[in-house]
Specification:
Number of helices: 13
Shape: globular
Number of strands: 14
Strand content: 15-25%
Oligomer: single chain
């Protein structure tokens, strides 16, 4: 009796899938943003139409049948088998190969002595002097922002690549006093967790290594947050730190200004899905409430021994982000996007956390796709005495049809 056809593993849902940028190789480009796999595949157009067979329910026979219908040929076992093999070897299927790959990467991060500079050589220069020169040019290009109040408590800067966001990076970090002004503080870095679990906060005890050296992590503050926030609110040694750029870019700017050994408290803020989906305040989720309370207590206890740095971008508009139109910075729909961005920034500047969140969820969810909403809301609740000043607003075409907005904001005590 013939055996039943084998069920195909499910294609991982956390992969990046986009049209191939290589004209000679049309199809779909697939890569792993978590870096569990280092491979990149370009699946030809015909085989790309078969990827829907990898849903955890269809079988190899279903795949062969679909391929036969698409090609009009009977002998399709070879191409079908090659597609299965390529996806499996790349770690793109939810199978044992991927489980082992994922386990090894997560264990490697847990056992590493430091968090490596994974974006050096890509997001910014990997060599010390070229990096120093690039950051100096960024600070020079930031213009002359309005002088912030003397009781400076924090800044918000972009986390887009420094190449694209240098005017806003320059305005944000150009507002900081150098010398002995801030170097002895713990820099609490609230970064967007692009890949983290919703309604969770990612922590690590590891120092951050960059081309400048190692920035030390305030382990005592990490332990206090773990203790006070309790189970369910915190991801300890969150693997997302291993790949996330929103904190790393801030670390290199801080090291450039205050020396390699700056002390940091890196926190990744996952999306507040309970608040977005249910049109509620984020702290109506008990885990979020505990963490916001713990972070607020840390602020109340340490006060100006902390300095807050937010690594955030704002709106994401255009083809890359699922909109049915090509976006150009400052043109067409992006004029209204700027007006809406500025209304949200006004609420942030007033320290109005609830009013800010009302605007985020006004249309039944964040249609502007602000990936910085969670860090911003976290800061407004943890440091309620802070009031903001907009130093720079910017829109940037990340590609020909897609725009990201971001800003430089300084925060001071009311």
């Amino acid at each position: 009796m013939p055996s039943a056809p084998r069920t195909l593993p499910r294609l991982r849902q956390d992969l990046e899938v986009m049209p191939s940028p290589v004209p000679e190789q049309p199809g779909l480009l697939i890569r792993d943003p978590f870096r569990f796999s280092d491979q990149t595949l370009i699946v030809p157009p015909l085989l790309a139409r078969c990827l829907s067979c990898f849903d955890g329910q269809k079988t190899e026979a279903d795949l062969r049948e679909r391929l036969a219908r698409l090609t009009g040929e009977i002998a399709v076992s070879g191409p079908a088998g090659h597609l299965i093999e390529a996806l499996a070897e790349a770690g793109f299927l939810e199978d044992q190969v991927f489980a082992e790959m994922k386990g090894k990467r997560e264990q490697a991060f847990r056992s590493a002595p430091h968090r490596s500079a994974v974006h050096a050589g890509g997001g910014y220069p990997a060599e010390r002097q070229p990096l120093r020169d690039a950051l100096a040019r960024s600070l020079d290009g930031g213009g002359s922002p309005a002088q912030p109040p003397r009781s400076l408590r924090g800044i918000a800067a972009p986390h887009v690549s420094p190449e694209g966001g240098y005017p806003s990076y320059g305005a944000a970090y150009g507002a900081l006093p150098t010398g002995d002004g801030l170097g002895d503080r713990t820099f609490v870095i609230l970064g967007t967790s692009h890949y983290g679990r919703p309604d969770r906060f990612g922590l690590t005890r590891k120092p951050f290594a960059t081309p400048f050296g190692r920035a030390s992590t305030d382990v005592g503050a990490v332990e206090a947050l773990i203790r006070d926030a309790g189970a369910g609110a915190v991801e300890e040694e969150d693997y997302c730190h291993a790949i996330e750029h929103s904190v790393e870019f801030q670390v290199v700017y801080l090291q450039h200004l205050f020396g390699a050994g700056v002390r940091i408290l890196p926190i990744l803020c996952g999306p507040f899905m309970a608040g977005l989906d249910g049109r509620r305040l984020p702290e109506e989720n008990a885990a979020v409430a505990r963490f916001l309370g713990a972070l607020g207590e840390l602020n109340a206890r340490l006060g100006d021994r902390l300095f807050w740095v937010l690594g955030i971008d704002m709106a994401h508009v255009g083809s890359r982000y699922g909109d049915p139109f090509a976006a150009r910075a400052g043109e067409g729909p992006l004029v209204e996007t700027e007006a809406r961005d500025r209304r949200r920034i006004d609420r942030i500047a007033e320290g109005d956390a609830a009013g800010f969140w009302d605007q985020v969820i006004a249309n039944g969810g964040d249609d502007l796709k602000w990936c910085g909403s969670s860090p911003l809301y976290t800061f407004l609740r943890a440091v309620p005495e802070a009031r903001g000043q907009l130093l720079r607003y910017q829109q940037w075409n990340i590609d020909a049809a897609s725009v990201v907005s971001f800003a430089a904001i300084s925060f001071a005590e009311a």
